[in-house]
Each structure stands twice: as C-alpha cells, then as structure tokens.
Input
Amino acid sequence: NLPPPNLIIGEVSRFYNIEESVIRGTLKNKNTAEARQVAMYLVRKLTNLSLPDIGKEFGDRDHTTVLHSLDQVEKKMRSDPAYAEKVKEITTNINNKK
Output
C-alpha cells in the first residue's frame, strides 16, 4: 500500500523543518529547493503518480521541472553519501507512518 503524497510531503517538511505550504510553493532558497526536490523524488519513488500529477502537488509545476528535480536528487545521492543518507532516513520515516 502506497503512502499518499501529503504524507510524503509532510515528512519531508518535518525533516527539513519547513512549512508544507513552502515546499509546495514557489519560494526559492537553497534549503527549500533541496527539500522540494527530495519531496518530488520521494513522491515519484513511493507512489504511482505521473510527472504531471506530481507537478500539480507542487503548485502546478511543469512535468519537466519535476524531471529536473529527480535528476538532481539522483545525481546528488551518487556523489554525496550524507545526502543519500538523509533521503534514506526520510524514506524510512514515511514507511513507518503509512
């Protein structure tokens, strides 16, 4: 059984200590961008949502934006073990909740 997107976004916002509305919104700074990309990545990994549907969860973003986020996260996970660890930890939190 798959976690709903709001659970995933909720866990990411809790982990980064950022309001959920900010993650779904358009504010841009380093911390928000990272949290938003991780949230998009996890929604993609843990649900059956399409890229356009994921975009809708994040303030009606284009599917190409979502794709870019997924690429960024995957690239960073390969190059930065601490970052990969974060993503894993958030995933575990989500799986424990559903």
